[in-house]
Design a protein that fits this description.
The protein is an alpha+beta fold. It has a domain of 97 residues. 19% of the residues lie in helices and 28% in strands. The protein contains eight helices and 17 strands. Strands 5, 6, 7, 8, 9, 10, 11, 12, 13, 14 and 15 form an eleven-stranded mixed β-sheet that branches. Helix 1 packs across helix 3. The longest helix has 12 residues. The chain starts with 19 loop residues before the first helix and ends with a strand.
């Protein structure tokens, strides 16, 4: 499961492997770099790529959203140079690059390079792709001594491709290739990496944004009174007094006016059930000055081909502390609501009215 890591340390929770949300927060907090659109960059593509692979975005003259996510993945001890394998067939994907046939690598996927993204979407849709298994055909494409079989797509862009909610691309697809798994929009947790692509009339128009999930709000069952337990957004009232609520498991229903808040410090062991209804991202946006910022909350939306204008692909890396988390059914002490005004809870502490 962890063979894709650069550092093969046996200490999964030690210095070698770190949670991607911790790395994203660290990168955003310690860097002071403008957005790539705000400056004229003189660094070569190779220089930019090398800094990103080292997770050192502070040495960049400007940073783009996909570069911030790539640096987060690299800082979490993953090899961006690794060859990308298709999620289902587990074989490489190639396209006609400038120097000849080029195999898709992880950094290309996170960076949503148009040729690489076009190729992986074509393979997912089995549209216009060729499965190369004959050495002679591989030689015709300039591939010798390479993989025994690979997908080959002669297209060059994903612009105009029919958008589908099942598509996997960007950082979400890279997370799967690195040993992780796809994450549904309502299952996202802090540290999940993602990419959204904008659509126009049902097809991709080439625009998008790469991000790391910072916080999520939603409904479900969580524990109060434990270290690093979720916080609550909204005024909680009843049943009983604050002292009677105590340490235990509580439920928040959808539409109750309350939401659990899962943040970078939340311990997965204090969450039994959770459905994300709002999401907050950390990425490189177009704010002046320091571009790496935590954004505003936005509602989680399911993809609708007729109405939705973006498709989001999210993934969870194996180093995420939420990687092994699964929902569980637990008895709760109470269902928290905004009725019965015996007590009120605020973020971080309970207080008596």
């Amino acid at each position: 499961m962890f063979d894709n890591r650069v550092n093969k340390s046996d200490d999964f929770l030690g210095k070698g492997f770190t949670d991607p949300i911790a790395e994203a927060v660290e990168l955003a907090g310690t860097s002071d770099v403008a957005h790539g659109y705000e400056v004229t960059r003189t660094q070569t593509g190779d220089e930019i790529r090398d800094e990103i692979k080292r997770g050192e975005i502070d040495d960049l003259e400007g940073v783009m959203c996909n570069e911030f996510t790539s640096a987060t993945v690299a800082a979490s001890e993953y090899d961006l140079d690794e060859r990308y394998l298709n999620q289902k067939s587990k074989i490489p994907i190639a396209y006609p690059g400038k120097g000849g046939t080029t195999f898709v690598e992880i950094w290309m996927v996170v960076g949503t390079l148009r040729e690489a993204t076009a190729a992986i979407l074509a393979v997912q849709g089995q549209s216009g792709v060729e499965k190369v298994t004959d050495p002679e055909r591989a030689a015709e494409l300039g591939v010798s001594g390479g993989p025994s079989e690979f997908w080959y797509f002669a297209g060059s862009t994903f612009v105009g491709v029919q958008a589908r909610g099942s598509h996997h691309f960007g950082a979400g697809a890279a997370a799967v290739a690195l040993g992780g798994y796809d994450v549904d929009a309502h299952d996202r947790k802090p540290g999940d990496v993602q990419q959204w692509l904008k659509t126009s009339n049902g097809t991709y128009d080439g625009l998008g944004q790469s991000s790391v999930v910072h916080e999520v709000k939603g409904s479900g069952v969580a524990r109060l009174g434990a270290a690093n337990c979720p916080e609550i957004d909204g005024d909680v009232r009843g049943p009983g007094t604050v002292d009677e609520l105590g340490n235990g498991w509580f439920r928040i229903e959808p539409g109750s006016g309350l939401e659990w808040i899962l943040g970078p410090e939340t311990d997965p062991m204090t969450v039994a059930e959770f459905t994300a209804e709002e999401i907050q991202l950390i990425d490189a946006n177009e704010q002046r000055g320091d571009a790496t910022q935590v954004g505003s909350y936005a509602d989680v939306e399911d993809f609708d081909a007729e109405e939705t204008t973006t498709v989001t692909s999210s993934g969870r890396l194996p180093t995420s502390k939420w990687f092994a988390w699964k929902p569980s059914v637990l008895a709760v002490l109470a269902v928290l609501s905004t009725s019965k005004p015996q007590a009120t809870a605020y973020r971080g502490a309970w207080t008596r009215r």
